[in-house]
Amino acid sequence: MLKADERKKLERDFIEAEASLALEGFHPSEFGVSLKTRVLAGDISLEQAQAELLAHYTPVASRIA
User: Fold this and answer.
1) Backbone phi and psi for residue 44, each to the nearest 5 degrees, phi listed first
2) Which residues, 6+ apart, have CB-to-CB distance to 10 below 8 Å?
3) How confident is the model at residue 59 (pLDDT cuts 50, 70, 90)?
4) What CA–CA distance (Å, rounded) separates 48 from 65?
């Protein structure tokens, strides 16, 4: 579980990041929103969310080494 001050900072960071993306014409995917929700709930860390994003969006062929 996140502390209240940690959650507030993360919420502000997500708002700023989403605003920046929106200015470029991008919007978060459902998958991205679900990760954000899990991070804010304290279910996963930012590092875990990043790893899931990379795994989700990296083409399968490039993951085969």
Assistant:
1) -140, 160
2) 2, 39, 40, 46
3) confident
4) 22
Summarize the confidence of residues 25-54 as an average pLDDT.
95
> What mean pLDDT is predicted for residues 6-34?
96
Cα–Cα distance for residue pair 60/41, rounded to 1 Å: 29
Three-state SS string over 24-63 comes to CCCCCCHHHHHHHHHHHCCCCCHHHHHHHHHHHHCCHHHH
pLDDT at site 37: 97
- Nearest to 36, CA basis, from 56, 60, 17, 64: 17
Output DSSP code: residue 2. Answer: -
Q: How much is the pTM? A: 0.82
